[in-house]
Design a protein that fits this description.
It contains 49 helices and 47 strands. Helix 15 (about 370-385) packs parallel to helix 20, helix 20 runs parallel beside helix 25 and helix 33 runs antiparallel to helix 34 (about 1010-1025). It has about 1350 residues and is an alpha+beta fold. The radius of gyration is 57 Å and the shape is elongated.
Length: about 1350
Amino acid sequence: MQTTLARTFAALSAINEAILYAKSPDELYQKVCDAGFSSGDFLAVAVFLVEPDGRRLCFAAGCGDDVARLRSIVITTEADTPEGSGVGGEAFRDQKLSISNDYLNDHRSLAWREGAAKAHIGAAAALPLLCNGKSVGVLFVTRSEAGSLNEQMVSLFERMSANISYALDNFARETARQTSERATRRLNRMFGALSATNEAILRAKTEYELYQLVCDASVHGGKSLATFVLLKEQDSHWLKPVAGTGENLEIVARTRYSVDPENPYGRGISGEVFRTQKPFVERDLARRTKGTPWEQANVNTGVAACIAAPLIQHGRSIGVILSFLSQSWAKDEEVVALMLRIAENVCFAIDNFDREAEKARIAEEEDRLARMYAALSATNEAILRARSRAELFDLVCEATAKGAKFTSATIALVDHHAELLRVVACYGPNAEMVRTFKFSTSDQMPEGRGLTGTAFRTRQPCLSNDVLSDDRIKPWQANARRNGIGSSAALPLFNGDRVEGVFLFNSPERGTFTPEFVELLQRLQANVAFALENFDRADEKAKAEMQRNRLRGMLEALSATNEAIMRVKSRAELFEAVCEAAVLGGTFTSATIALVDPTGRYLDIAVTKGECRSHVENWRFATSADEPEGRGLAGTAFRTKAPCVANELLTDVRATHWRRIARDHGTKSGGCFPLLKNGTDAVGVLLFLSPDEGTFTPDLIQLLGRLAENVSFALDNFARAEERSRAEAQKERLTRMFAALSATNEAIVRAKSRTELFELVCQAASTGGKFTSTTIALAKADSDQLAIVAAAGPSAETTRNVRLSIDADRPEGRGMSGTAFRTRQPCVSNDYVNDSRVSAFHAVLQGDAARSGAAFPLITHGQPVGVMIYMSTEQETFTAEFVELLQRLADNVSFAMENFDRADEKNEADERIEYLASHDSLTDLPNRETFNGLLREAIDQAQRHDHRFAVLFIDLDRFKVINDSLGHEAGDLLLLEVGSRLRGALRETDVVARLGGDEFVVILDQCGEIDDVQRIATGLLVALAEPMELAGHECHTTASIGIAMYPANGSDVQTLTKNADMAMYLAKEDGKNGYRFFSKEVKTQSIERLSLESALRRALEREQFSLNYQPKVDMETGQITGVEALLRWTHPDLGSISPAQFIPLAEETGLIVPIGRWVVKEACAQAMAWQRRGLLPVSMAVNLSPRQFVDEHLLQDVDEALAASGMSPVLLQLEVTESMMMRNVGRALKVLDAIQSRGIRLAIDDFGTGYSSMSLMKHFPIDTIKIDRSFVRDLPQDSEDQAIAQAIISMGKALGMTVVAEGVENAEQEAFLRAHGCDEMQGFLISKPVPARQMAELLRPMELPVAPPLQPEQDLAATEAAALRLKRAVI
């Protein structure tokens, strides 16, 4: 323990050192665990931290051998759960150390006990981890020794907890300090941004400089990722970016913004802010822009949030300032306020700029030349910024006209075909007028001899500094005068060495175009020429890039197709993958696969993908050139089996029929490629449509051709796979039919009835052969019809409605089934649709797609009795080997039907035996066991439906007198008449049973009123009192009736019967021929019974019980083969008490279990005592009571008796009754199997008096059947007893059991039993039950006479003499 304490001190020291060096809580936790485990004597040290919801403690760090288990366990903070009641949860909740010094036996550790036991955990402790006084987790330690956590270690643990909690407090304080510093730095930066914005406002000379400086300050001094200023263009609804700083400037500059709410670009944030003049903060820009024109721009920039504020000048919106931020800064209200404050300051500055406008206009007039230089610079900027020729021309004209104050700046391009120069761009006050001018390149026309025509032809500038006096300008002078044009200049527009058009500049002043000015214009001319060359190069590059992208996309599609060919499982899946891959690159608006239809005249679309799929999927192509739909690309490619391409689809004559459709959907080129089967036969086409002309270059055509070849190859593979599949299916079908044949044989063995057999066979055959239906139809007696008795398969319901006949004169009799029945041979139709023999069934089976069928006759005892019919959806299904298999199946079914015929005969005999076992053989009324079952059912019904009923116990008053005076035959007639009268006097729902002798019982169903019961009882007495004729004598008899009411007089079978019996005896005491209800008076009179019960409870301990033994002898040898132990009770006061009196009482009270245990021990001990005396070893039979049989300690009691006595289990035989086994068949089987597995033999006692099922008898592990004495008593005179005895002996022999007859009292009985093969017997003819001492005398070895062999005709005298000699020898 001192070593453990020292190691714990070392662990504390190591943990304190870990606390000093840890840089974070996570590092602290791991260091503490490592230090604690390496220095302390622990299995493991682990840290568990509380989850955010506060309900569970989650493993955070750990070290040691037990860490794997700790990592997997669940600990909660809730005290009312098993996972929260351990030391971990307790320490967390109570904020104090929690210890378990006997962990495996501690009830708190129940939830983790199994794993802890495997890990050999003896003790465990949990230390709370606190931060600012609040529990944040626990430090968990485990040890292998139980009881190893003493007070000193507890004190050390508390110090550990305090030190770690102190460290956590320090970490929390440090985190708070750092957060405060970050907030201060952010505030300083925000004020710096605002200060920089104000400084920019003061420093800016123009509005545009102001905008740029503000954007710079917002990004570099604030938290904006990018800031842009958008201004509304004059006379337009568009917002144009005029300044910006930050990320993705080009993307934002290309994006369009509008203030028009009707325009899609005006419904965004900027348009809304411009219109409402209210700022707007969007913290989820991706959600806001989804489905809008800005969605792709937002995806490209990856911006999460933005702030938009209006720019207002004199109360009117002039633009918007947009700032893009991260999502976290957008949630910061201070940052948002900063950005809005910047926007307010900008609006204030704009108002100030307006006051300086007048001064600016004066300065502009004085600096005209400088502005021309600025115009040149702006032109250059336009050249750099322009993204297309049209945009370049517009920007150059605008910049030049504005910079030089021209009335118009114009660019016109040559139309060589028309010999005209057509205006493509023009800007200035006179722009619209200039657009109406006609300029020609021909000097043969007046419009071609002006400045523009001359400059175009001469490739030199052409000037006119006085337009109104220049004859060259004559065609335009009137317009020039009206619009104030004073001078003009035209310069050729070069693109490399080629003149593509002219520049035309008009000035309101004469003499404008000085040499210096023309030089500036020539520089502009050169810059534009350079830009045009760049555009040409860019166009060529773009075209090359587009072509590369198309080829790359098609290579990817080709690769994806190849992958799809390897991966896909069906044609449909292949087509989907191919078309989907083809349209991914955007080259094609649709990719379509069309397959030829069964007629070969049309191509039906199988799959189409792309933007135009909704239109294309409704098209249908023809394969013939005679039809308009067949002259296009698809039909041509299909017929020629070669690619068919149209790069100018709108002018291609082959596409005449499709031209309007192509124009409506923007399709300008198309290509179609054939799909070939085995490289020769066209089976379809692959069609691609493009929105661009010239898409299908040779390289692309080659790639698409390879794609079509790959698809064709895949289709060939599918065809080959399907062919293999068909072959495999046939092989599989044969295999499955062999399995079906096996399953059918199994069904034949397993089926309990013909119906079950037919259903199992049809199901097995249908499943195995994949038939659409399998049917069994049997011939009807006195009819030509075949009745369908079973059907299985997808079309079974249709088949059940088919009318079948065996008459060849009827149409339905000439089919397969009728033919097979008449010829007794299989009838096959492998082309069912075209077979005239089955035409009568075509209409009915048309919907089931039946293509072949077969019928096989079912023949039993040499005669056809029915047919088996199979239908298949495939032609030629029924090959020779298939027919052979199905014939074997039909033969097996026929064999099974013959077996059922034989079984029916046997079942009739078995049912008779079962009936006799459950009914009184004389009156045919239910016997005692059956009555008990019926009474139990009546009790269950009454309990469920809450109603009452009555039990009547009836005993004849003078039966013994009649029986003794007139003989047993008269007595039997009397009992028969009484049973008949009772049935006749009661309702059909009432139950009448004979318990034995002259005792009858009645259950009055749902008869709970006393008056009704009295009326019925009176009626019964009247009916029984009527005279009757017996053996020629008129006899009178009466009865006494005892009545018990449910539930008042009992709620179980035994109580109701017993109370009714008690009441009956009172009725007899009252003078007979009457009835009595059970009452307190009856109960009082049962005190004697209670006294007997009390004495019975003390009898065992006072050793008042003893055993008598009755021998059993072999009927062949006459030797004793065994004895049966029979219980006897001798009371000191009451004397010998009959077993019939005390055994039911013991059974009812449960005393039979300890008494039965004593009987087994005593009988085994006595058997071994006889053997030790050298007597003949014989089997010892012991009766088990019902209570004893269901006792859970039965097997233990038997094992202990055998162990205590040393007796071999083989010599012990336990006797049970049928009713005991049938109460719970499942449990009985388990108990009997367990007994037999010990080598102990089992016997059914009193066989024939219970209600066992013959079908279940073969499942019980029974060695011996004992014929009840009631069936032996009247042998051999009673014919029914003879039949029952013979049946029991035959059944026992068939099941391999030993048959023992009880109650053999005379030689006639012995002779009958020997003659019919009974194995053993016991009864008074041999010996009465005797004490052990006398039984020992009988067991002494002696020569016993052998029974004479059976002869065809017995000598009765000789038989009696032999029996007497046997009796004397035994007794």
